Amino acid sequence: MVITLIPAAPDDVDYVIDLKARVLRADLERAVGAWNPDRSAERVRDHFSPASTRIVRDDDKRIGTITMRPEDGVIWLEMFYLEPTAQGRGIGSAVLEIVLAEAGDRHIHLQVLDGSNARRLYERHGFVLVSADGIDDILVRHAPSVDAEHPHGGAPARAGVAVLD
Fold it and tell me: Which residues partner with 62 through β-bridges?
């Protein structure tokens, strides 16, 4: 399987809205006790940025999204959703490896629902908990050490492509 990250287009917002509902509905119902599809869609529309968002593809099929939004010298990893059928197959790790390599020496922040299985994925990739409020956990991945051989913290990913067996 060949996983690629391609730039999002403005009309991809509807795919992100639908994907968020498929991926997060049960977790949001557990965390906050309710699911409001209109509020969820509004939040995606308010924060969707094609310039910062990529569509995750498996060959010719859309299987997810990820946003890497720069703000005040750090990057916020947002709207990282994978289709339920794509979860648990190493795809999330492959996508993270690509975007973390691209981020180079910048700190990366993210927000994840308390109790979400995704938190283990982020922790395996060097993210640590910095705050929690019982609903959301804020995790940070500090910039990797810089050395002369790898000035951006590691070898760069191959143009947003990962090949998985």
Answer: 57
For residue 38, the one-letter residue type is D
Among the listed residues 73, 23, 81, the one whose alpha carbon sits nearest the alpha carbon of residue 47:
81
Dig out the tokens for 30 from the structure.
Answer: 């557990």
C-alpha span between 56 and 98 (Å, rounded): 11
Q: Are 78 and 69 in contact (CB under 8 A)?
A: yes
Determine the Cα–Cα distance for residues 105 and 74; give it in Å rounded to an integer.
10
- Tokens linked to 141: 């991945």
pLDDT reading at 152 higher than 70: no
Strands (E), 8-147: 53-58, 61-71, 74-82, 108-113, 128-132, 136-141
For residues 48, 54, 63, 110, the Cα torsion angle rounded to the nearest 10 degrees is: -70
Q: Is 126 exposed, middle or buried (0-12, 13-18, 19+ CB in 10 A)?
A: middle
Q: Are strands 108-113 and 74-82 parallel, antiparallel or unpaired?
A: parallel
Is the confidence at residue 157, as pLDDT, over 70? no
The pLDDT of residue 156 is above 50:
no
| 93/26 Cα distance (integer angstroms) | 22
Local structure of residue 148 (DSSP, 8 states) = S
Euclidean distance between CA atoms 95 and 18, whole angstroms: 20
